Structure formats: structure tokens, C-alpha cells
Amino acid sequence: EEYLQLETPLDVALTGNYTAISDADTVYLFNRAENRYYEYAHGKKVTKLQFDGNEILYFLDEDMMLHTLDPQKLTDGEPCTTSLSFACTTFLIQGNDLYYTAEAGGKAKINKTTLTELGETNILLVENVTPGPTLAYYGDKLYYTSGNLLWSYEGQYNDKKYVATFPHVSKIASTSIVN
Fold first, then answer.
1. More confident residue, 69 or 164
2. Is the dihedral of CA 42, 15, 99, 150 positive or negative?
């Protein structure tokens, strides 16, 4: 194990073979098989990380642009990132589905697309959400925050179910683990 002197860690993502940590504009990737850290300097603050089922790292930067990083290419010293020309304020990967938010006019919308058709087919799920929602998936349901309220998406447009209120919390953060 190696100690990383992080300055402003923003997110972490875990999968069977890798751990990714964003620290300002840098992504540190720990390869468990090699017991070694690799470093990718993005040049812009990296705000969100998540691995897909193929252990490709998806990350969001401060310009709200989505990118991928292939850990195998990084460890081989090859060009390892791809800009997806896809903008969102946050995202969540569940299987081949990408749930994401877009914000305008002081409200957020939660949408869904697939990783294979990224942005080509977008399905609007929920509108009028408080800006800055956090997304989570549990069982077979999408959950999201709106301010300090937790809701579940019930499968149809704007069909939501109240789950809980967190009275002393202004924003709920998430971390993802992929098995």
C-alpha cells in the first residue's frame, strides 16, 4: 500500500481490479494486480468518477463534460482517455444505462441513455428537481435527492415516491462500488 498526499480529493470509485481517486485535476488509479498507482493529469478539475462493468472509468470534469479512461491503456503508457462530447451535471452507471442530470433555469432534470448510444437516445425521467441532485441505484430502482429529500423513481415520466427527509443535511453525496 502506498500513501498518496492528496490536496483536494473530490471522489473515489472502486472496482475489482482498480481504485480511482480524483484530486483536483488529477486521477490516481491504483492497479491491485500490480500493487501500483498510476497518475493521469486531466488539466481540469475532476468532480465525479465511476467504473462501468468493463472497468472503464467514466469521469466528469468541471466543465461538465464526460470522459472515459481505460486503465489498461494507462498502465501500458498509451493514450488512455476519450472525451465523449457529452455534458451533464452528474451521472450514474447501472449496467449499460447511464442516468444523468442536466440543469437549467434553477432546476434539474434526470434523464437516461445507454453507454452504447450515449446521447443519441435520451429519455426524460423526472423534471423540477432541486439543482445538484445525487443519484443512486439499489435493487431495481433509481433513487435521487432533491435538496434534503430522498425520492425513488417509479418507472414512468415524473412518477416518483417520497422516501425520506434528512432535516440536518443540505446535500447527500455518493460513492460507487462495482463488483
1. 69
2. negative
Report the relative pairing of strands 141-146 and 26-31 from DSSP bridges: unpaired
Cα distance between residue 58 and residue 22, in whole Å: 12
Which secondary-structure segment (H or E) carries 76?
helix 71-76
66, 84 Cβ separation under 8 angstroms: yes
DSSP three-state, residue 62? coil
CB-CB contact of 108 with 91 (8 Å): no
pLDDT, tens digit (0-9, with 9 covering 90-100), for 44-82:
999 999 999 999 999 999 999 999 999 989 877 777 899
Measured CA to CA in angstroms, residue 169 lies from 67, 163, 173 at distances of: 30, 15, 10
**3-class DSSP assignment, residue 143:** strand
Q: List the beta bridge partners of residue 11.
A: 22
Cα of 4 vs its chain's centroid, Å: 22
Among 140, 87, 84, which residue's Cα sits nearest to residue 111? Answer: 87
pLDDT of residue 141: 92
The Cα 95–Cα 135 span in angstroms is 14
C-alpha cell of residue 162: 417520497
Euclidean distance between CA atoms 97 and 93, whole angstroms: 6
Rounded to whole angstroms, the Cα distance separating 81 from 62 reads: 16
